[in-house]
Amino acid sequence: MDQLITHFTLCKRRLPYLMVGEMMLCGLAVVSLLASEILWVMARHQIHAVEIKALAGSVIMIVMIIALLGNSISTLKKSLQIFKPADSVLRGENISEQQAPAFWQWIRQIAHNAQLTVPDNIVVGLCDSFFVIANTVQLKGGERLTGNTLHFPLTYASLMSKAEIAAIIGHELGHFTGEDTQYSLRFVPIYDSMQRSLAALADNSMAGSFLDNLVLNPALDMGRWFLECFHESVNYWNRLRELAADRAGANSASAQDFSSALLRIIALTEPVNEHLDALVNRRVLAENWVASLHDFIAPTGSLDVRSAIDREIAHPMDSHPITRERIAALGVAFDESLIARASRPVSEEDYGAVAQLFDASEPALYRTLSGAIVESQRQALQTDAGRGLERLDLWMIQKSSPILYWGGWLLIAMSLLLWVPAVVLRLWSWLPYGLAMLFLGVVFIWQAKRQKRRVRQPIFSLTAESIESTYLPQPLMLRDITAFDLQADSSSMTLVLYVREGYHPDISLTKKQSMPAIRFNDAIRAMQIYDVGDLWLKSGRESVKVTPEKLTEWVGQYLTSDRARQHLQDYS
């Protein structure tokens, strides 16, 4: 463990310098290559026009690469700081020993019995499971905590026995003991931050130019290689530390209690998340979310723990071995006795035992936690609802319209040129060719005028509540759209808007048109807007080309904003 941390810390300090150095060397290599070609051309006595253009292009590339290198040097300080660990953000309430003395005394007793480290902070929450954090924690809308922090979920705790909770807490506190503390404090935060930073750099490089990628990609490859070198060691130590923490959990109660707790938490995850989602989104109203959860799960009876044996407990910042391996490592048999113990129905006894730990503060604590979550959700909805209010008129630019128009007149002129010698010289076999050219010319001109009329008005408009278009007999309300997709082929792009079941638009107007821009596909229950690859947004006198990414972003934002405004009515 000490060697892992020592070598990783050393590499972490040197990696930013090596990455920036590789960026500079790659850039200088390209500059040297171009410079050698320029010198070779200039050494010739005669320089042709093509070579002059190549020289000019090479000089421009050299200037651009040198500018990129200068930018790399200017960002050296930022590069040295990209691996700085960020604060972990939690949603919950920091419970002091003065607020809940019985609860803290119980935690201290668990730590004392198994000779474990007592946490510096305990954050009580509702949404996540049990876990510990060794780096700095920022509570949403609250204080910043330093030291070892234990997250205690009232939801899961109220559905388990005190012995099972003690075993899980012992497991979590086991991460604060011995070498695991150094691993958690010195290694995991920096390793995770490096992964996030390199992922962010990779995302930024995807939007960069060719020259940007030319000097950046080799440095990113070095960073990825660095992480891959430590990946096997990280997985090895993760497994060892989890199994060691499992033994600490078993010592805090018993191996059977810990095994039962593992199975029970996994079996409870789906119903807990389902009911919490209903509470957060106001489909279910309750002041005491823990009691509401208990009432929701109690009628289901025994829990399905057999399917949990080959799954792992979800963790916001870590991974675990599968439950079968963890139980086997403790020497516990996965038999009917363990299954009966873990799958028992939730009971009032378990709920009451946890409530007693918080004395008289329990009702107020539940209201505070649930109220903070609801308020956070309401603010997020208000933010989304405030977007997507402006009307966006999207126009289609038909680049082929002039070509069709003048091409049509050219075909008509050519048909007349064929008719003159055909009539004068009586070459009647030429007449069908002239008629064909005349027909095609008329069709081309008709199609050009049709396209010209088509671009005199927006193909469709995004509004706060609907999608409007002259090709639709009535606006397509955003609330009727369930999903959307942007489909592309080699020549065109189509925006597909899937509508709810039972929605039947009046498409009589679109049927009257030849090849309308917007059509309803009853087979897939979707409104399809064709040829959206050449869309322009007109704002005043300016026109901006709409990229596929921007169109996807706008449609998604308007749908999200409409749903947020509807959903806000549940929070009034």
Major β-sheet strand ordering: 11-10-9-8-16-17
Q: Hey, roughly how much beta strand do the residues contain?
A: 5-15%
Q: C-alpha Rg, in Å?
A: 34 Å
**Helical segment count:** 18
Query: How many angstroms separate the termini?
Result: 54 Å
Average pLDDT works out at 79
Q: In which range does the helix fraction lie?
A: 55-70%
The beta-strand count equals: 17
Low-confidence stretches: 509-513
The outline comes out as: extended
- Main sheet characteristics: 6 strands, antiparallel
Q: In terms of structural class, how would the helical and strand content be classed? A: alpha+beta
Layout of strands and helices, then pairs:
Blueprint: H1 2-42, H2 49-74, H3 76-80, E1 88-90, E2 93-94, H4 101-113, E3 121-125, E4 131-133, E5 137-139, E6 144-145, E7 149-153, H5 154-157, H6 162-174, H7 179-206, H8 210-252, H9 255-280, H10 289-297, H11 323-329, H12 336-342, H13 348-356, H14 362-385, E8 392-396, H15 401-424, H16 431-454, E9 460-462, E10 466-468, E11 476-477, E12 481-488, E13 493-499, H17 508-511, E14 518-521, E15 526-529, E16 535-539, E17 542-546, H18 548-568
Parallel strand pairs: 1-5, 3-7
Antiparallel strand pairs: 2-3, 4-7, 5-6, 8-9, 8-16, 9-10, 10-11, 12-13, 13-15, 14-15, 16-17
